[in-house]
Amino acid sequence: MRLSYTRLAGLAAKKQKCFALVPGSRSSTEILSLSTLHSHPFCRNESKQGGSKMSSFSCLLLFLQGAWAAVIIQVPSSPVQAGPHSNVSLPCHFSLDPPRPINVDFLIVRWSLRGKNVAKFDTNITVFRPRGAVLDARRLPEGNATLYLSDVREEDAGEYTCFVLHTPDSAEGKVALKLEARPQLHIVTRPSGKTFLVAECLVCGFYPENVEVQGLQNGEPIQGRIYKSGLEKNSNGTFSTGSVFFPKQGHFAANFTCQVQHEALEAPLEETIPWEPEGEGAGITHPSSPECITKSPRPKLKPASPTDPPPAPGSPMTWLLGPLGLALGLVLGGGAMLMYQRRRAKNEQAEPNDQTLLKKMGEDAESHEGKASGKSLDGTRM
């Protein structure tokens, strides 16, 4: 906003300070001293040419006519994402139009959040954030007013304002900070014999805690039992969780997809791996993010709450409890019972139940983690 020459003349005649109004500012003014103008190279040069020191009013008029330049602000249009307790930079760059060097003697930079100052440059740097902030004065002449925050927390999220005054013009930009961490995905299939398959989907390092994990078989929701772990809070404030999928028996070769939906993702994060019986793809292990496992606590699966009812009679777990067992008990008595127990133990060893397999998965987790290798999915490929 330009001041009228009449107003400037009145101020200069009274030998007062010149008040350069700041558009958009609720404060009364930002102050520019006339003595500062006299020290400016523009006024010093004009004074030498005239042979005598120019009046404050004349110098100010010439300064405003020759040095006026609009302030142009550049900030990111998309929100800046940061995980809890991480360090983050909020970009803010400015320039003058028409182009000319930035003079820090006429520069004020102020960062604020919800109306409260975070950091400010006005000759010197002042920081108001309790956990500190960095506004690098050395980079201001380059037009770089980026703000650096450390150990960000929930209260740091919000819309920041980057205000720049290069007398006599000013401008401001808005930078949104969202406290989010993209989930990482890790998938493992564990075949056991040719009649049993299980897939484990681990999701690590996400924030906030709300997440949806779904298993798909050939593009359709898994038809079988699903066990889900509770949320595990990591040391860095993020969360991890996991699911184990038990498909219905008889489905061997198939494509299994683990799909994750989270607010930090623009689109669902998913990875598809082939499901094959042992012998065709023996020992299938498809880690898609080893770092997800080694740097996060492994979620503890809770098999007490399956989403589907227990196996129906006729499954490998229960067929010996049917009519054949009753007939053998009636005919052979104690001898048949002994045979029954032996055959049952042998069958359970060949085809473990859900509880046995979950226990085994926990026991060999460390061994698997040490051998895990593969491509990391951190939400960037979707």
Question: What features would you describe in this structure?
Answer:
The chain is α+β, with helices and mostly antiparallel strands. The chain folds into three domains: 5-68, no CATH class; 71-179, Immunoglobulins (Immunoglobulin-like); 184-316 and 351-371, Immunoglobulin-like, CATH 2.60.40.10. The chain contains nine helices and 22 strands. The radius of gyration is 35 Å and the shape is elongated.
Unreliable stretches covering 5 or more consecutive residues: 1-54, 279-291, 294-333, 347-352, 364-382
Question: Which architecture of the largest domain per CATH?
Answer: Sandwich
> Total strand count, please?
22
Count of discrete structural domains: 3
Biased composition (Basic and acidic residues): 360-382
Organism: Podarcis muralis
Domain Ig-like: 69-178, 183-274
InterPro entries: Ig-like_CS_Receptor, Ig-like_dom, Ig-like_dom_sf, Ig-like_fold, Ig/MHC_CS, Ig_C1-set, Ig_sub, Ig_V-set
Give a summary of the structure in a few sentences.
This protein is α+β, with helices and mostly antiparallel strands. It has helices at residues 5-13, 34-39, 41-50, 56-67, 290-294, 323-332, 334-350, 354-363, 365-371; strands at residues 18-20, 30-32, 70-74, 80-82, 88-90, 93-97, 107-113, 116-122, 124-127, 133-135, 147-149, 158-166, 169-179, 184-189, 199-206, 212-217, 220-221, 224-228, 232-233, 239-247, 254-261, 269-275.
Question: Mind sketching the topology for me?
Answer:
Blueprint: H1 5-13, E1 18-20, E2 30-32, H2 34-39, H3 41-50, H4 56-67, E3 70-74, E4 80-82, E5 88-90, E6 93-97, E7 107-113, E8 116-122, E9 124-127, E10 133-135, E11 147-149, E12 158-166, E13 169-179, E14 184-189, E15 199-206, E16 212-217, E17 220-221, E18 224-228, E19 232-233, E20 239-247, E21 254-261, E22 269-275, H5 290-294, H6 323-332, H7 334-350, H8 354-363, H9 365-371
Parallel strand pairs: 4-13
Antiparallel strand pairs: 1-2, 3-6, 5-11, 7-8, 7-12, 8-9, 10-11, 12-13, 14-15, 15-20, 16-17, 16-21, 18-20, 19-20, 21-22
Helix pairs in contact: 1-4, 6-7
Transmembrane segments: 319-340
Region (Disordered): 276-316, 346-382
Biased composition (Basic and acidic residues): 360-382
